[in-house]
Every structure is written in C-alpha cells, then in structure tokens.
Amino acid sequence: MTTETKRKIMWLAAAAAVLVGDQASKLVVILAVGAGKSAAVIGDVFRLSPQVRPFVALGPPPFFQITLFILLPVAVLAFLVFLYFRDKSFRLPSRLAAAAVVGGGLSNLCDRFVRAGGVVEFLDFKSFGIFGLSRWPAFNPADLAIVAGLTAFLVVRIVRLIGKHRAAKDTPKS
User: Fold this and answer.
1) Across-strand partners of 48?
2) CB 94 within 8 A of CB 83
3) Is 70 exposed, middle or buried (CB count within 10 Å of its CB: 0-12, 13-18, 19+)?
4) How buried is 126 (Cβ within 10 angstroms: 0-12 exposed, 13-18 middle, 19+ buried)?
5) Does the reported pTM lie above 0.85?
C-alpha cells in the first residue's frame, strides 16, 4: 500500500470516527437522559439536555434555512474533500482538521436527513451572562468538531503562510 493510499485511508477513518462518535453519543444521551429532559453533570454549570432542533431555534425563514443548513454545508464539505485530494501539501494537522470538519458536517447532515425533527443537541453549558445569556445554546460533538477543525485548519494555514513569507523575506536576492 502506497503512502498516498494510507494517507487517504487515515483521513477517511478520522472523518468516519467523528461521524460515528457523534451519532453514538447522541443515541446514548437520548437513551440515558431522555429527550426533553436534563441531567446535571457538573451542577448547573454543565448538563446533558437532549433536544431536537429542526434547523435553528431563532433562525431565518425555511427557504433560507434549507440554503444555509443543507446546501451551504454540502458545498463546503465538497470543497474540503476536493481541496484535500487535490492539494498534496496537506500535512497531518491539516488532514486531521479537515477530517474533523467533514465528519462533523456529515453527522449533522445525517441528522437533518435521517432523524425526524432535525439535529440532536445535548451539551448544555451555563454562560454566566456572556452575551446576556443565562445558558449557552446547546450543541453536540459534531458542532465541536466543526468549530475546532476549522479553527485548527485556519491556524495551521496561517502559520504556514507566515513561515513561507519569512523564508522568502530571508532569502538573499541574486
């Protein structure tokens, strides 16, 4: 098996692990806690509160929700997959970050297409008044993977660009 094939398999396995882990955690929490109920994990600071959201709680009209939460994610996921397989310069951090985004995005899309009602959100944190909220909007591991993956992906890309810029600046002109 070539290094390139191993790299692609590892990336697909990482994305699949995020997808399966997210779906399994949703199932476990729904079975253990029950939809619409809440279980304290760390007092009132962190609770498991499974709830199903059709799209977003206070979001735009349905047409825009379909565009924003189905068509746009599909386009972003397709772009990331295209970029991943086309750009040979992806290193391990970029590959894992892209896999987290793709796995989380696919998991949330699975919820929207397979689950009756929408996406299951269950991680419920007290926000201590930040943005005037008593509680942070509930989210799930897929959301966490998407945000962490995008953040890591951007940081890695920015660090690489800075490194290239410094290298080009330090290279003597002929």
Assistant:
1) 39, 123
2) no
3) middle
4) middle
5) no
Count how many Cα atoms sit within 13 Å of the Cα of residue 21 in the half-sphere of its side chain: 16
* Contact between residue 31 and residue 15 where contact means Cβ atoms under 8 Å apart: no
Please compute, for residue 150, the number of CA atoms within 13 A of its CA located in the half-sphere on the CB side. Answer: 10
Question: Quick one: which of 114, 101, 127 has its CA closest to 26?
Answer: 114
Q: For residues 124 and 139, what is the distance between their CA atoms, to the nearest angstrom? A: 7
Q: Give, in degrees to the nearest 5, the angle at Cα 135 between 129 and 141.
A: 130
**Ordered per-residue pLDDT tens for the chain, 174 residues:** 787 778 778 888 999 999 999 999 999 999 999 888 989 999 889 999 998 877 554 455 556 666 666 677 778 778 877 777 777 667 788 888 888 998 998 898 888 878 767 788 889 998 887 778 788 888 899 999 999 999 998 998 899 888 888 877 777 666
**Sign of dihedral through CA atoms 88, 93, 99, 104?**
negative
Q: Helices 92-114 and 3-33, interaxial angle, to 10°?
A: 40
